[in-house]
Design brief:
This protein is an alpha+beta fold. It contains nine helices and 14 strands. The longest helix is centred in the middle third of the chain and has 19 residues.
C-alpha cells in the first residue's frame, strides 16, 4: 500500500483537513485513494521522434495486421479473419466542457441541468455526536460511517445513523500479478469509477512466460458503463490466459479476446422488456478496450475505441511510441489530412468515438498489431483519463518512472497520481507490462 499523502485540503471538495484524517470530514472522500505526489521526476531529454506509419524500411516498420505465413510459434497461426467494414457511427463519451455525459443521452452535447448523480455528497459530521457510538460499532465488528463517524454501516452500504452511502470499493483498485500491475481510480470529478482492468501471467506451451493486461473504459453516455467495462475486461483477460497456453498465436488470441469481450458486453443489453418500457431512451451498455500480450520476443496490442497503449524503452536511448490509433472523430480528421493533431483534439468533437463494444455498435472491428522490440522496455496500457494528461509518446515517457519495469505497481501509482495532479477530470486506469516477459513468480522490487 502507498503511504498516505500529507494533504492540507480535500482533493474532492477542497475543504480543510486535519493531520491524520483518513476520510474527508466534509464529503467523506477516501484520502488513501489519492496517491502521494510522485517523486519520480525524470530530467532526461528525449531526442528523436517516432516515425509515422509507413516509415522507410528499417525505421519502425508497420507490423502486419495478422501473423505472417510461416511465423514460428508453438502452434501454426489460424488464418486471419476478413477485414470488417469501417465503423460509421459516432458516440460521444463526454460533453464539450469535458464533463461526463449522463447515462441515457444520445449525443452527449446537450445541457443536462436537471441531471443528478446517483448519490449525494457526504456532509460534515455533526460535532454534537459523541465518538463513543463509533467505538462501540467498531468493537462489535461493524463498519463505522465515514460521514458522521458514529453510525454503523448496514450490509447495503448505508449508515444507520445518518443514512449516507459509503465509499465504494471500486473507487480505487490496485492489483499486482507477478511483473504486471494495474491501478484504477475514480478521479476527482466523477461520482463513480466506470473503468476496469484485468491482468495476469501464464506460460506458453514451451514454458516461456507471457504477460497479459486488459483495460476498459465505460462509455458514459450509455447505460451501466461500469458493468460493461467490468464484463469486457473479465472476458478478454480470461480468454487470453486460456488461449496462450494452448499455443494460439498471441495476435490471434488478442483478436479472439476482443470478440469475447464484445459478446460479454452485448449480453448486458438483454434486459427484460419492462426495463426498456421505463427507459426506452437509454443506450445499450458500451465500453472501449485496449490490451497487450508480452512474451520473450513479441509484443502484441489490440484495441477498439480510444483507450491506448504506449511503448517506453527502459534506457530511453530510443524514442517512445504510441502503439494504437484511436477510433475517434479527432483521429479520423487527422488521418484524412483535414486537421493536425493539436487542432483536432482541441475541437469539442475530439472525444466522439467511432468504435466501441456494445450491442448498438455498427461494426465490430478489432484492431491488432504485433511488434518485436529490440531492447527492454515497458508497455503502458491506459484509458484517456491518463493520456489526456500525457498525450504524446514523449510526454508519456517523461512521466513513466525509470524503474517501471522492476516496480510496476509503484509506477502505476505514480501515473495515476500524475493524472490526479492534473485535475483528475475522468476515471484513471493504467496497467504496466514489462518487456520482455518475466518468468512467473517474479514481482516488483
Amino acid at each position: 500500500m502507498s503511504q498516505m499523502p500529507q494533504l492540507s485540503a480535500c482533493p474532492s471538495c477542497e475543504e480543510p483537513l486535519e493531520s491524520g484524517d483518513r476520510f474527508c470530514g466534509a464529503c467523506g472522500y477516501d484520502l488513501s485513494a489519492v496517491p502521494a505526489r510522485p517523486r519520480d521526476n525524470p530530467t532526461i531529454t528525449l531526442h528523436g521522434s517516432v516515425p509515422a506509419q509507413g516509415a522507410p524500411a528499417g525505421e519502425y516498420p508497420e507490423p502486419p495486421s495478422a501473423p505472417p505465413a510461416g511465423t514460428a510459434w508453438p502452434a501454426p497461426p489460424p488464418p486471419s479473419a476478413p477485414p470488417a467494414a469501417p465503423a460509421t457511427g459516432v458516440r460521444f463519451d463526454r460533453r464539450p466542457d469535458g464533463q461526463p455525459v449522463p447515462p441515457g443521452s444520445d449525443t452527449g452535447v446537450e445541457a443536462y441541468p436537471g441531471q443528478q448523480p446517483d448519490e449525494y455528497l457526504l456532509q460534515a459530521p455533526d460535532p454534537r455526536v459523541s465518538a463513543d457510538p463509533a467505538a462501540q460499532a467498531a468493537g462489535a465488528g461493524g463498519k463505522v460511517c465515514v460521514a458522521c463517524r458514529a453510525g454503523r454501516v448496514d450490509d447495503d452500504g448505508y449508515c444507520q445513523n445518518c443514512g449516507h452511502a459509503q465509499p465504494r470499493e471500486r473507487d480505487h483498485m490496485e492489483q499486482e500479478s507477478g511483473p504486471v500491475a494495474a491501478v484504477s481510480d475514480r478521479g476527482l470529478r466523477h461520482h463513480r469509477n466506470e473503468d476496469a482492468f484485468g491482468i495476469g501471467t501464464t506460460a506458453l506451451p514451451d514454458g516461456a512466460p507471457a504477460s497479459v493486461a486488459i483495460v476498459c473504459d465505460g462509455v458514459s453516455s450509455a447505460t451501466r458503463p461500469d458493468a460493461a467495462s467490468m464484463a469486457a475486461s473479465k472476458a478478454a483477460s480470461e480468454t487470453l490466459l486460456a488461449a496462450l497456453p494452448r499455443g494460439t498465436h498471441p495476435q490471434q488470441a488478442m483478436h479472439d479476446a476482443i470478440v469475447a469481450a464484445s459478446r460479454a458486453v452485448n449480453s448486458l443489453a438483454g434486459e427484460p422488456a419492462t426495463v426498456r418500457e421505463h427507459a426506452p431512451h437509454q443506450n445499450a451498455p458500451a465500453c472501449t478496450i485496449v490490451g497487450a500480450v508480452v512474451t520473450a520476443h513479441l509484443l502484441v496490442v489490440g484495441w477498439v475505441g480510444d483507450s491506448r497503449a504506449y511503448w517506453v524503452p527502459a534506457d530511453r536511448s530510443a524514442p517512445p511510441a504510441r502503439l494504437t490509433e484511436d477510433d475517434s472523430w479527432a483521429a479520423q480528421m487527422v488521418a484524412a489530412g483535414l486537421m493536425n493533431e493539436a487542432e483536432a483534439y482541441a475541437d469539442e468533437r475530439a472525444h466522439a468515438i467511432t468504435g466501441w463494444l456494445g450491442a448498438d455498435a455498427y461494426e465490430l472491428e478489432p484492431h491488432t498489431a504485433a511488434f518485436k522490440p529490440d531492447r527492454p522496455g515497458v508497455v503502458v496500457v491506459c484509458t484517456d483519463g491518463l493520456w489526456n494528461y500525457a498525450e504524446a509518446a514523449e510526454e508519456m515517457a517523461r512521466v513513466v518512472p525509470f524503474d517501471a519495469a522492476t516496480r510496476p505497481l509503484h509506477s502505476a501509482r505514480v501515473l495515476v497520481g500524475h493524472a490526479l495532479d492534473g485535475g483528475g477530470h475522468d476515471n484513471v486506469t493504467v496497467a504496466l507490462v514489462p518487456f520482455p516477459a518475466v518468468p512467473r513468480g517474479a514481482g516488483s522490487a
